[in-house]
């Protein structure tokens, strides 16, 4: 029997999906409306999180590190005078994760939500294709990917139906390429590989090994991509990339990251402030760091980066405990895809909040005891 918590949680999920639709279609055109939606999310999530909190005392490890990072951002915002919103955003994200991990999903609710998601994805894609409202491609593509992955895990797919899974991901990748959103296709490919591998093999990898390897890759990308840009340039392949997508391989990140690293070493321990962006110094630009780890290090220093690393590690440990091998492998690859994606973007709790909240919502569903039944009908 569904409780009041489940009904409110279902309502919250629909509102979160709707906020992704507003973000993907309108960008910042109706910023006040988006802020109103986020306030509703905050209100509902606060009520539900308090309701759930006392029943989860024994599971507070992940929550503890999220709250700690939120406090670090709050203290930094008070000291430097800006950036407090990121402290609140972290609570948004954690609430979405907690609520979706505790929700008892009904078949009727899933059917309705799937129709809503399909409709929203179609509209967002049309906006991206024709360039209405000037919504940034990263915002459009990021929402399509997050909603697309959420739709798949709500679909109770047959894990052995290769044709359906391959066709589904082909459609999503094609959408991203049509709107010239290249980075997100990497995330889709990683999740697709996870589903295929999970349908054929059974294994588990030590969470610490996965964590260290993934984080090492994330930091290595900063240096590897710059070298690749140089290789593409001298080989002539760079011109081909520009002809196809009208942008270079790294889209300016080879310029942003060296500047960011220089700034990091000016205040490596505590950072430059919770709301700091490179544009605060180079005022003619509108750059974020386009790398979650660099941005957090810039803002709240090595202390904040260490706490963020603990959050990611605790998520990996929680996903590792899933007894359903297929869901574990899908979760593992989704987690890796988030690390890789956030090596090029800052979507885990900054920039586009609807995308960030959706990512945490998906993590919560993967942690849900019902995950096997919801995702693969097992």
From TrEMBL:
<dbReference type="Pfam" id="PF04932">
    <property type="entry name" value="Wzy_C"/>
</dbReference>
<dbReference type="InterPro" id="IPR051533">
    <property type="entry name" value="WaaL-like"/>
</dbReference>
<feature type="transmembrane region" description="Helical">
    <location>
        <begin position="255"/>
        <end position="274"/>
    </location>
</feature>
<feature type="transmembrane region" description="Helical">
    <location>
        <begin position="169"/>
        <end position="197"/>
    </location>
</feature>
<feature type="transmembrane region" description="Helical">
    <location>
        <begin position="32"/>
        <end position="50"/>
    </location>
</feature>
<keyword id="KW-0812">Transmembrane</keyword>
<feature type="transmembrane region" description="Helical">
    <location>
        <begin position="7"/>
        <end position="26"/>
    </location>
</feature>
<feature type="transmembrane region" description="Helical">
    <location>
        <begin position="209"/>
        <end position="234"/>
    </location>
</feature>
<keyword id="KW-0472">Membrane</keyword>
<dbReference type="GO" id="GO:0016020">
    <property type="term" value="C:membrane"/>
</dbReference>
<feature type="transmembrane region" description="Helical">
    <location>
        <begin position="140"/>
        <end position="157"/>
    </location>
</feature>
<feature type="transmembrane region" description="Helical">
    <location>
        <begin position="62"/>
        <end position="80"/>
    </location>
</feature>
<feature type="transmembrane region" description="Helical">
    <location>
        <begin position="294"/>
        <end position="313"/>
    </location>
</feature>
<protein>
    <recommendedName>
        <fullName>O-antigen ligase-related domain-containing protein</fullName>
    </recommendedName>
</protein>
<keyword id="KW-1133">Transmembrane helix</keyword>
<feature type="transmembrane region" description="Helical">
    <location>
        <begin position="112"/>
        <end position="134"/>
    </location>
</feature>
<feature type="domain" description="O-antigen ligase-related">
    <location>
        <begin position="169"/>
        <end position="307"/>
    </location>
</feature>
<dbReference type="InterPro" id="IPR007016">
    <property type="entry name" value="O-antigen_ligase-rel_domated"/>
</dbReference>
<feature type="transmembrane region" description="Helical">
    <location>
        <begin position="325"/>
        <end position="342"/>
    </location>
</feature>
């Amino acid at each position: 029997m569904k409780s009041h918590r489940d009904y409110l949680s279902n309502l919250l999920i629909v509102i979160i999906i709707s906020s992704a639709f507003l973000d993907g279609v309108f960008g910042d055109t109706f910023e006040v409306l988006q802020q109103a939606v986020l306030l509703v999310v905050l209100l509902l999530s606060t009520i539900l999180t308090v309701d759930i909190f006392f029943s989860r005392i024994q599971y507070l490890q992940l929550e503890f590190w999220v709250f700690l990072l939120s406090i670090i951002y709050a203290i930094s915002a008070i000291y430097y005078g800006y950036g407090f919103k990121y402290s609140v955003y972290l609570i948004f994200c954690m609430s979405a994760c907690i609520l979706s991990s505790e929700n008892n999903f009904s078949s009727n609710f899933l059917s309705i939500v799937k129709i809503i998601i399909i409709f929203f994805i179609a509209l967002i894609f049309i906006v991206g294709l024709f360039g209405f409202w000037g919504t940034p491609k990263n915002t459009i593509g990021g929402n399509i990917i997050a909603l697309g992955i959420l739709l798949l895990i709500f679909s109770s797919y047959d894990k052995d139906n290769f044709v359906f899974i391959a066709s589904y991901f082909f459609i999503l990748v094609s959408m991203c390429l049509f709107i010239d959103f290249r980075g997100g296709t990497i995330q889709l490919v990683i999740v697709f590989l996870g589903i295929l591998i999970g349908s054929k093999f059974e294994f588990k990898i030590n969470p610490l090994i996965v964590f260290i390897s993934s984080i090492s890759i994330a930091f290595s990308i900063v240096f590897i991509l710059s070298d690749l840009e140089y290789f593409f340039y001298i080989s002539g392949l760079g011109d081909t990339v520009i002809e196809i997508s009208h942008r270079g391989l790294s889209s300016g990140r080879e310029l942003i990251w060296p500047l960011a690293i220089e700034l990091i070493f000016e205040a490596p321990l505590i950072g430059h402030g919770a709301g700091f962006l490179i544009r605060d110094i180079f005022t003619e630009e509108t750059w974020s760091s386009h790398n979650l780890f660099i941005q957090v290090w810039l803002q709240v220093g090595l202390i904040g980066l260490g706490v963020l690393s603990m959050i990611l590690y605790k998520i990996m440990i929680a996903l590792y405990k899933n007894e359903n091998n297929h869901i574990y492998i899908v979760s593992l690859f989704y987690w890796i895809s988030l690390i890789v994606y956030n090596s090029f973007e800052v979507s885990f709790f900054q920039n586009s909040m609807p995308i960030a909240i959706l990512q945490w919502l998906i993590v919560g569903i993967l942690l849900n005891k019902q995950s096997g039944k919801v995702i693969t009908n097992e």
